Amino acid sequence: MYEGKLVRLREYRKDDIEKAKEFLNDFEVRKNLQPAIPYPYTLEDEEKWYSGISAVKDTYTFALETLDGRYIGGCGVNSVDWKNSKVVIGIFIGDKEYWSKGYGSDAIDTLVKFVFEEMNINKIGLCVYSFNERAVKCYEKCGFTREGVLREELFRQGRYHDEILMSLLRREYYNK
């Protein structure tokens, strides 16, 4: 659907569900995604999530695949504020074979292009946990700026961690 240099953002398919569950039940993947207690997803959890995806909601969920068609994760627009022209995005690469090889930054670049060119949005925001240094570097490489820090916002693996707020403005994207 939307193609970058290394990845394609496409619709989720029913045959992605089992692999998505496998990715999300990997603690190393899951710890970076949400503040909830990292409890394993069931196949029924993933099927319920999949059945809730809709083109008529104000969320835009994409499966992330390599250009040769291998499903490796997901990304999307998690919330939209049309009045103030801003969105919150998220991404995960579940297939560790594709970590630290440029697939994440290509996916973010492709998603950013979608947001600015198709949705006509002014500001893209995201949150990242302070221990996820690989993601912070990826977002900075894609032009995102640190806006602030929510101190000790997340309890994970016996400690409190900060949550970093980052954003990219439309004018910054077009002036780089």
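(the above was protein one; protein two follows)
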Amino acid sequence: LGLDIAAGEGTAVKSAGDGKVLSVEDSKDFGTVVTIDHGNKVTAKYCGLKNVTVKSDDIVAAGQAIGEIGTVPSECVDEAHLHFETYRDGRAVSPINLIEGTEQ
């Protein structure tokens, strides 16, 4: 239940909301992944980043740059993009439904 957002390599990736960085990890499938707790039991994974500017336990503001578009190894045939996943209570949910307010 992820969302791929097209953007040129090197484009700044910004936090979707205020939150706390839970982790910055390297994944074989998703490249560098920044996971942010956005509160209200919602976490988000920003996948395929490079030049990450945050670390675990950092507090971020909505719109704050957290890195740049890099590559998503498991989706390397696709154009450059951000792979964005959201979770509520640890369960994968559609980012679109969260944005639209239809995900409870």
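Reviewer note on protein two: The CA atoms of residues 7 and 81 lie 5 Å apart.
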